[in-house]
Amino acid sequence: MIYKHLLRADRQRQVPPGFSWVDHRLIRHRHLERCDHSAWALYLFLVTVADAQGLSYYSAAALGRSLSLDVLRLANAREQLVRADLIAYRKPLYQVLSMPEAGTPAPATVSERSGQTQSAGEILRRVLAGGSL
């Protein structure tokens, strides 16, 4: 058995006002396996800057600069997190969501609910405009 002890007692992490811990269920419920590293960079950024309700409104340009992501990679990262049911997005507002219960499937996307076929051009226009797929 490993005995755990603080390596830097003078730097023990405390939860300050306006900040919350990253939920350990991200790993335990395997949410990390659903998204790539760009999505996790975006998730960590959003968790860090969100208010007490999980809300933030950084622009795509500001997020892209902060995370070194071009507009398409940012849109893809955002869509991965939406599909994993970890964030909600409606331009310009992001909401970091509470963790879904284990085994709860992610909600269907709008296109899946409508059953309508979408052209690649329609999808790309919507992504570039900051909407979800």
Can you offer a commentary on this structure?
It contains six helices and three strands; from the N terminus they run H-H-E-H-H-E-E-H-H. With 133 residues, the protein is mainly alpha-helical. It has a single domain (24-100, 107-128), classed as Arc Repressor Mutant, subunit A, CATH 1.10.10. The protein has a three-stranded antiparallel β-sheet. The longest helix is centred in the first third of the chain and has 13 residues, at 37-49. The relative contact order is 0.14.
Question: What key attributes describe this structure?
Answer:
6 helices; three-stranded antiparallel beta sheet; 8% strand; 133 residues; mainly alpha; Arc Repressor Mutant, subunit A; 39% helix
